[in-house]
Amino acid sequence: METGSKAKVAAKATAPQFILDRSSAVPALIGRQEDFLHIAGLAGTAYDIAALTGNAGNSYALAGAMGAACMMGLGLALARPEKRVLVTTGDGELLMSLGSLAAIAVMNPPNLSILCVDNGHYGETGYQVSHTSLGVDLEAIAQGSGIKLTRTVSAEADIAEGARILRQGNATAFVLLRVKPTDPPKAKLNLDGAVCREAFRAALLHQA
Amino acid sequence: MNPKTEIAHPARWQDDLYDELRRSDITQFAYVPDAGHSVLIARSLADRDVHSIRLTTEEEGVALLAGADLGGRRGVLLMQSSGVGNCINMLSLTKGSRFPFLTLVSMRGEFGEGNPWQFAMGQAVEPVLAAMGVICLRAERPEDVIPTTKAAITMVFQSGQAVAVLLTQKLIGAKKF
Question: Which terminus of chain A faces fewer neighbouring Cβ atoms within 10 Å, N or C?
Answer without folding.
Answer: C
